[in-house]
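The instructor's notes for this session suggest beginning with a concrete chain rather than abstract definitions. Hand out the sequence below and ask the class to guess, before any prediction is shown, which regions might be ordered.
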Amino acid sequence: MASPLDPHAAVVTEAGGLPPEAPARDAQAARAAGLTTADGKPLKRALARASRRSRRRAFLLVLPLLAFIVITFVIPIGQMLHRSVHNDGFSANMPQIGAWFAQTEPGTAPDEAAFAALAEDLRLAAEERTIGIVGTRINYEMSGTRSLFTSTGRKVRNGLEPPYREALLALDKGWGDPALWTAMRTSSTAYTDSFYLASLDRTRDDQGRITQVNENRRVYIMLFMRTLWLSALVTFTTFLLGFPIAHLLATLPLRRSNLLMILVLLPFWTSLLVRTTSWMVLLQQQGVVNDMLIWLGIISADGRLKMMYNQTGTIIAMTHILLPFMILPLYSVMRTINPAYVRAARSLGATSWTAFRRIYFPQTLPGLGAGALLVFILAVGYYITPALVGGASGQLISNMIAEHMTRTLNWSMAAALAAILLAGVLILYWVYDRLVGIDNLKLG
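After discussion, reveal the predicted structure:
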């Protein structure tokens, strides 16, 4: 048989060329030898065409999945990030006062021209029935101001007589409040950082400087810290409970471990709402757990434990629900660990603790890292369980995001909170990659 690198041999391949996985050295040698295909075309061109055809075929195969990810994941996240910095409810409907703000410096006291522009914008917004949108936008910055805009809009439909300052102040003294004018200045541009500032319990003063909000309004930083703390605690609790269970499953004979695995997977087959309401029945002061503790004599009838509508209930319920996400990655890694390693360490004089700490446990780290990431990321975004069993002290940042999405309808604020939460998760992912290496993560 002639060598494929023989310059006198005719190279014939199916589909007019060599397969795209041909070694690079063969292609280089062929170019040097000036080989051609059976139809007389240069081999270099045939190889390039076959490689492009292979890449195009692979791209078409993954195109449906790529389109699905872009439509259902990338685009919604992009819209969320855009909405967190964009809100034109005021700027699009109040152009004249917006122009006055653009021409003046922050802290400039409103003059007669500013009140004239405001009066005309209020009249036009009332006629076009957008005054409610305007008031809602300012209400995001300064609560209680929506009614000021709507009531004034009804009164200025027929216009106001100058001087406009006295006319507007006669309708409502609130139009002279410097804080209101600061809120309008902040909202006078469609793109703003005010929602991110509010998400960090910050705002801008009359001079445009970033300051903390009043102490009674500082809630978001506290919710972020509580979310991170409870998520870390739930992750640690699932590790303490899940590690011995995974070890037991990995060391038992296959028939018994499969039976126990069904019990581990059973929560996946039960509705999340059903599992949460079941914990409500168990943990309430007149529930099963308290009744059993009284029956055992551990607590008295007057000393029933409060395990509902607080952080205790949230931790217990979330730990139970998220436990399988820790067990399964640990089990998948433990199943592949050769028990001969530990026996060899014991035979060389290591104690059981030393063999576990230096031989067995380090081999489980890929599964532990995967389980910890899964549990923590799921925990920071939990909503139903904290809402039902958490009470005021067990609410997480996800509950506040849902509050803005469904009740206050402040989608920009919800998007800013969600973006900060997303950034925190990405930072956690980056730290894990730097410390452990994402290549070492094993999910199964």
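Then share the key points. Residues 43-83 form the longest helix (41 residues). The chain is about 65% helix and 0% strand.
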